[in-house]
Design a protein that fits this description.
Layout: H1 3-23, H2 37-41, H3 53-64, H4 86-98, H5 109-125, E1 145-149, H6 152-173, H7 178-184, E2 188-193, H8 198-207, E3 210-214, H9 224-236, E4 240-247, H10 259-269, E5 272-276, E6 301-304, H11 306-309, E7 317-321, H12 325-331, H13 364-400, E8 403-405, E9 413-418, H14 421-425, H15 437-454, E10 460-464, E11 467-473, H16 481-499
Parallel strand pairs: 2-3, 2-4, 4-5, 5-6
Antiparallel strand pairs: 1-7, 6-7, 8-9, 9-11, 10-11
Helix pairs in contact: 4-13, 5-13, 6-7, 6-8, 6-12, 9-10, 13-16, 15-16
This protein binds pyridoxal-5'-phosphate (PLP).
Pyridoxal-5'-phosphate binds next to helix 6.
């Protein structure tokens, strides 16, 4: 393909994208293909000769489109949102243009320095304590800083790896010999709650340590007391606590752990304190949410994913640390062909020392486009619109009378179910008791399944402390009040089909 053809097809591709965005709200949100559908439609080998763009374009329409679940649809309320926006796409195109392998400053100074700048911008926007920023107000370098990573899971592996080496150094400073400290790694334990994202469990496995999932309280929070008890128990069993993950906005219910309490325990036990705010961190762009974030200022690392709720496409997870030395101590490597800056290294971040892999895209461009083209006010409006839509949805469900909330609606996530009293009042069960728990779970699952089959809107369920519940994540960039109205209409109608009025 030469540049003349690229100009032609590039513009056509932009039209395909714009058409998709204009029509996606009219498509059923969930793909209904059966497993293996695509294998049957595809040739067994790559084409021997180049194929025209037109053929691929047609196949996107006929073969790929049916297998797509439309995360950008205003009628998609599943899991957490993936909020894309046009400025993000423009930024991605620009990243593709340069296609650098930006492992260190020398690879492309602009790539490194823009990342440092936008991560400070974003950190200030979400009200992070200044110990997480790369530069203080007078322009002098600080110990902290932010980095762009691929996922919340990756951010946590980076944090755990840094934490593990910090703990080894701490043990050595306590008089334990280096070999013994190294051997003790197999007894290192990570803490979270039963509501912590399973990524933490997986990350602990990758890093090679155990995880203790502490039982959360009745508000689905990890508390100081429960954490202390778990640590006590483990220390008595000869284990070594070294890392705790506090969550700001859990995946099941957007609960917020006792972050100040966890910070106290972490400080006392010399543990690394990581805050996972993958979804809800975006809300901190609005200062009215800052009171909920108390305790984050004491963390060793904090991460959230603009690719979830801040108008940026995947992969865009941002993480800040209070002391970047722990990252380079654990992840920094070097070799002859590396060409690191020698001498004055002020303003220089070699971000390969802050991540798992060596090579990296010019990731900051996309974030820079998003932050500039939406501005603080645009991002705040985006968040506030979804939060008020979620509140409106909650009001509608409560007014209906057949539903109960299972967790407070703090952000854009509404968690509810058909209430057990329905069984008492209906012919379905003469009396409601513990034995009817399975029955009310079954009714709620029926509601989820029927809504998924109906496919005018898409949502998923979850289980919290034995209860099957419905999760509605409001947050599509293309969603408007009309989409929430449709959701309410579908919910009411399907509920009536199952249990009557
Ligand atoms: C979505 C989510 C994750 C996992 O994020 P990935 O980027 O897919 O690794 C982790 N923690 C929380 C709280 C989440 O909401």
């Amino acid at each position: 393909m030469d540049t003349a053809e690229f100009r032609k097809y590039g513009k056509e591709m932009v039209d395909i994208i714009a058409d998709y965005y204009e029509n996606v709200n009219n498509m059923p949100p969930k793909s209904t293909v059966k497993p293996g559908y695509l294998y049957k439609l595809m040739p067994r080998e790559i084409p021997e000769d180049p194929e025209p763009f037109e053929d691929i374009k047609r196949d996107i329409e006929t073969k790929i489109m049916p297998g797509m679940t439309h995360w950008q649809s205003g009628n998609f309320f599943g899991w957490f949102p993936s909020t894309n926006s046009f400025p993000s796409m423009l930024g991605d195109m620009c990243t593709n243009m340069f296609d650098i392998v930006g492992f260190n400053w020398t690879c492309s100074p602009a790539a490194t320095e823009l990342e440092t700048v936008v991560m400070d911008w974003l950190g200030k926007l979400i009200g992070l304590n200044k110990r997480f920023l790369s530069f203080s107000e007078d322009g002098t370098e600080a110990a902290g800083g932010g980095v762009i990573l691929g996922s919340a899971s990756e951010a946590q592996i980076v944090a755990m790896t840094a934490a593990r080496e910090r703990m080894v150094a701490h043990l050595i400073s306590q008089g334990i010999c280096a070999e013994e400290a190294e051997r003790m790694k197999s007894r290192f334990v990570v803490y979270g709650s039963d509501q912590t994202h399973f990524a933490t469990q997986k990350d602990a496995r990758i890093v090679g340590c155990k995880m203790h999932a502490v039982v959360s309280d009745e508000n689905f929070r990890l508390t100081k007391e429960a954490l202390e008890a778990a640590i006590e128990e483990d220390k008595n069993a000869g284990l070594v606590p070294f890392f705790v993950c506090g969550t700001f906005g859990t995946t099941n219910t957007t609960a917020i752990d006792d972050l100040p309490g966890i910070a106290d325990v972490a400080a006392l036990e010399n543990m690394w304190f990581h805050v996972d705010a993958a979804y809800a961190g975006a809300a901190l762009a609005c200062p009215e949410f800052w009171p909920l974030a108390v305790g984050i200022e004491h963390a060793d690392s904090f991460s959230f994913s603009p690719h979830k709720w801040m108008l940026t496409s995947l992969n865009m997870t941002t993480m800040w640390v209070a002391n970047s030395m722990h990252l380079s101590n654990s992840l920094g490597m070097s070799c002859e062909y590396f060409l690191r800056v020698k001498g004055d290294r002020a303003f220089v971040r070699d971000y390969c020392d802050w991540q798992l892999s060596l090579g990296r895209r010019f990731r900051a461009l996309k974030l820079w486009f998003v932050l500039r083209m939406h501005g603080a006010s645009g991002i705040q409006k985006h968040i506030r619109t979804h939060v008020s839509q979620a509140k409106w949805l909650e009001d509608q469900l409560l007014a209906d009378g057949r539903f109960e909330m299972m967790a407070p609606t703090l952000f854009g996530l509404v968690v509810f179910r058909i209430k057990p009293q329905i069984l008492v009042d209906s012919s379905m069960a003469p009396a409601y008791g513990k034995e009817n728990c399975a029955k009310i779970n079954a009714i709620n699952n029926e509601l989820i399944n029927r809504i998924q089959d109906d496919n005018r809107v898409f949502l998923v369920g979850t289980n919290i402390k034995g209860h099957d519940v419905i999760r509605v994540a409001v947050g599509s960039t293309l969603g408007s009040h009309r989409n929430i109205e449709l959701l309410v209409q579908v919910l009411k109608q399907v509920t009536t089909e199952i249990i009557g009025n």
